[in-house]
Each structure stands twice: as structure tokens, then as C-alpha cells.
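quick q for whoever's on today - can somebody do inverse folding on this one?? i tried earlier but teh output was garbage lol. C-alpha cells:
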């Protein structure tokens, strides 16, 4: 598995609570969606990794993008389905990424916002490479990771819904190197500060 099992279980347990917390889109994510959609020309088929509560997919669809919603957490997939959306349980490290709606056709883009932070460093390049293989030449990538060193165990939530997340941090040089090695051409890596002490590196890239 690309993601720590306790992390997946934490999301499974609090999917609805987390989705409600994340319903308001951060300004930096809205900016990245604008750029992503513009680069795609306002259309295309996109594989979303880590759809969560579905906030980003809705915004992408408003702009004319067709989105395949996926998540490694069964709790999120069930939540999306209960809300009337088609969603697939998917581990990008091990599962077949082919689009069931368009057999044999690659995606025009990959949207992976703030989700690959849970992928172990040793697996990160493999995941990026598999995403590249599933994307057409010139297709777009958005991926955002936490900026920093090493990894951390984040624990928060309530007694009724405890959370335990393993997160991997990145610095820009190593992040760029991993992307290049996985056949992505990086155009920008942009630092953003979300909440206090919440630092992100947002990648804009094309499939080589």
C-alpha cells in the first residue's frame, strides 16, 4: 500500500466530518484550479487522486472538465456515492489506473491536491511514474505536498473520532527531481502558506 493503513482507517472513520471541514476551498487551491483548467483549454478527462469529500471535482466540472473521482479511503468513496457521484476505490501505487469510461484512452490530466502527502517517500516516484503512464503526452499534472523535511505523525480529532495521519514532507529540489525522473516536465513549483504553519509546494507540470 502506498498509504499507511492507520491513515486510511482514520479517513474512513471521519469521512463526513472531514468533508464538512474541507468544504470551503482555500484561495491557493482555487488559484491552482484556474491555472489547471486554463492549461487544459477548458475541457478534457481528468483522473482525480484523493477526491475526499468531492470539493475540487465539483469546481473542475463547473469549468467543463470531466472528472473520475477516486480515493484510497472507502469512507470517502461511500460518501461520494451517497451524494450521487460515481467514485472508485483506488490505490495509485497498486491498482489499475485505466479509465473505465474510456478504455485504452489516456487521461488529459491528473489532479492530486494535498493527498500524496500520505505516500511514503520510497513509493512516491513509483506513483508519479504510474500517473505519467496513464496520461497523454502533454497532459497536465497538479500535485501539492507539504514543504519540510522528513515525515511526521499527525494526531488530532476527538475522542469519538481520533485521527492518525502519516505525512511525508518535501523540499523543492528533491520534489523536482522525483517528478523529472517520472517523466513529468515541471513548469512551476509554487510555495503557498495555508493556515499558520501550513506550508505547501504546488506543482504545475506536463507529461513528457
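ok took a stab at it. sequence:
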Amino acid at each position: 500500500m502506498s498509504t499507511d493503513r492507520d491513515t486510511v482507517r482514520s479517513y474512513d472513520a471521519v469521512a463526513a466530518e472531514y468533508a464538512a471541514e474541507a468544504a470551503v476551498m482555500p484561495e491557493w487551491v482555487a488559484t491552482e484550479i484556474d491555472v489547471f483548467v486554463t492549461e487544459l483549454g477548458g475541457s478534457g478527462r481528468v483522473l482525480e487522486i484523493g477526491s475526499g469529500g468531492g470539493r475540487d471535482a465539483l469546481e473542475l466540472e463547473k469549468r467543463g472538465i470531466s472528472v473520475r473521482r477516486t480515493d484510497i479511503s472507502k469512507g470517502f468513496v461511500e460518501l461520494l456515492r451517497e451524494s450521487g457521484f460515481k467514485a472508485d476505490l483506488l490505490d495509485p501505487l497498486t491498482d489499475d489506473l485505466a479509465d473505465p469510461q474510456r478504455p485504452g484512452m489516456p487521461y488529459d490530466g491528473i489532479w492530486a491536491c494535498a493527498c500524496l502527502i500520505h505516500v511514503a517517500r520510497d513509493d512516491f516516484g513509483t506513483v508519479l511514474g504510474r500517473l505519467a503512464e496513464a496520461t497523454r503526452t502533454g497532459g497536465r499534472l497538479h500535485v501539492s505536498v507539504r514543504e519540510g523535511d522528513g515525515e511526521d505523525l499527525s494526531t488530532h480529532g476527538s475522542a469519538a473520532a481520533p485521527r492518525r495521519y502519516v505525512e511525508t514532507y518535501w523540499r523543492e529540489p528533491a520534489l523536482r527531481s522525483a517528478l523529472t525522473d517520472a517523466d513529468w516536465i515541471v513548469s512551476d513549483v509554487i510555495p503557498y502558506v495555508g493556515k499558520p504553519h501550513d506550508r505547501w509546494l504546488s506543482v504545475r507540470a506536463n507529461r513528457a
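fwiw Helices lie at 5-13, 15-21, 27-40, 55-62, 74-82, 121-133, 172-181. also The chain has seven helices and nine strands. so keep that in mind when u check it
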